[in-house]
Write a structure and sequence with these properties.
Belongs to the PanB family. The chain is an alpha/beta fold and about 375 residues long. It contains 16 helices and eight strands. The structure holds 5,10-methenyl-6,7,8-trihydrofolic acid (MHF) and 3-methyl-2-oxobutanoic acid. 5,10-methenyl-6,7,8-trihydrofolic acid binds near residues 120, 217, 268 and 298.
Length: about 375
């Protein structure tokens, strides 16, 4: 009971008594505290494994206003362009969020740009969920969309709903995206929306269909195909999608689809006439500037920086400074020890017959002083 009282200290007496009632038979099970339900309610009291100054997910300033479906609808109604960028982890999400980008997409392009696969097919739902959770921790404002990966929604509407709900429950996303507009995909989209999850559609080049498309090729370059893309987009809108990604289609086709729909289109390689634009984080940053990677960056990607070159040269410089012993030097060796302690340590070492080691200590202490 005394242990419990300590735990309760930050809480009011009243709240504590309510909690004690709820705790009931758990009162004596402190050693099993990890599985006690009230542990969840006393996060602060149990946070002994947290550093005092939490950097990544700690208490933050007042949160900025979140982008919601209403915000997006208003932007669309006012014909204001909607911006979307992908992110896959905490730091990339912070970058995207701080730039006031409207929608943060945790894309299955992670399979390629993060995991190094040649297509988006190998990434699993469980892997996507790890990316989603990390990205969600970094985003305070952006509307969060999680990409349903290949194999997580094609089998049945039940499978689609199950995967989509996991994206919200375990991935902390606000909505999901799925690819394609065939009847099966439209049914999946409808079922997910009916389950209460907002869905973004995706037509044109759908990279998860690379097997049947025979490569990452521009789509809808003949009238028949263009009409089909438009029909699919309309069907997805009918199923309740809040927005549709249009990938790798000629600009006039994107204009037609955008005109035909009453929900926003988000273009990538689809020209300027869409309601918004999306780019992959690594592409827009020029992260893959190495010739080995340059070939996987599509032609429609504008590089707003050469981050890859900056990173490469920084690591090269670090490596050179380690090799030449320029780093860390005294400037980056911050931990000091008083002279008296050095003398005492050297004395102890000599008393144990360790003359060489005592010398090493004294020499380095001297070097630190002369280069300070
Ligand atoms: N880094 C990256 N950026 C993306 O935009 C992106 C991914 N990865 N992975 C998932 C999909 C695949 N995407 C791609 C990939 C390549 C092309 C591309 O290079 N297309 C060529 C035509 C290739 C052909 O005809 O075979 C082009 O000329 O644009 C287009 C879209 C878009 N998505
Ligand atoms: C390219 C965007 C739209 C995407 O689907 C992804 O990043 O996976």
């Amino acid at each position: 009971m005394s242990v419990l009282r300590n735990v309760m200290l930050p809480w009011s007496e009243k709240f504590a008594s309510v909690m004690l009632r709820q705790v009931g038979s758990f009162q004596t099970s402190i050693p099993h505290a990890r599985c006690c339900p009230w542990q969840l309610m006393t996060k602060q009291a149990f946070a002994s494994s947290q550093p005092e100054n939490v950097v990544y997910a700690g208490p933050s300033q007042a949160s900025p206003k979140r982008v919601t479906l209403r915000t997006l609808r208003t932007k669309y109604a006012n014909q204001e362009p909607i911006s979307m960028v992908t992110a896959y982890d905490y730091p990339s999400a912070v970058h995207v969020d701080e730039a006031n980008v409207d929608i943060l997409l945790v894309g299955d392009s992670a399979a390629m740009v993060v995991h190094g696969h040649d297509t988006t097919l190998p990434i699993t739902l469980d892997e996507m969920l790890v990316h989603c959770r990390a990205a969600a921790r970094g985003a305070r404002r952006a509307f969060l969309v999680g990409d349903l990966p290949f194999g997580s929604y094609e089998v049945s509407t039940a499978q689609a709903v199950q995967s989509a709900t996991r994206m919200l429950k375990e991935g902390n996303m606000d909505a999901v995206k799925l690819e394609g507009g065939s009847s099966g995909r439209v049914s999946a989209a409808r079922a997910i929306v009916e389950a209460g999850v907002a869905v973004m559609g995706h037509v044109g080049l759908t990279p998860q269909s690379v097997s049947v498309l025979g490569g990452f090729r521009p789509q809808a370059q003949v009238a028949d195909e263009a009409l089909e893309v438009m029909q699919r987009a309309l069907a997805l809108q009918g199923a309740g999608c809040f927005s549709i990604v249009l990938e790798c289609v000629p600009a006039p086709i994107a204009a037609a689809v955008t005109k035909a729909l009453s929900i926003p289109t988000i273009g990538i390689g689809a020209g300027p006439a869409t309601s918004g634009q999306v780019l992959v984080y690594h592409d827009l940053l020029g992260m893959m500037s190495h010739p080995h990677h340059a070939k996987v960056t599509p032609k429609f990607c504008k590089q707003y920086a050469s981050a890859g070159k900056v990173i490469q040269s920084a690591i090269q410089q670090y490596r050179d400074e380690v090799a030449s012993r320029t780093f860390p030097g005294t400037a980056f060796s911050p931990y000091k020890i008083p002279d008296a302690e050095i003398e005492s340590l050297a004395r102890e070492l000599r008393a144990r017959g360790l003359e060489d080691i005592a010398k090493a200590v004294e020499e380095e202490a001297q070097r630190q002083k002369t280069h300070a």
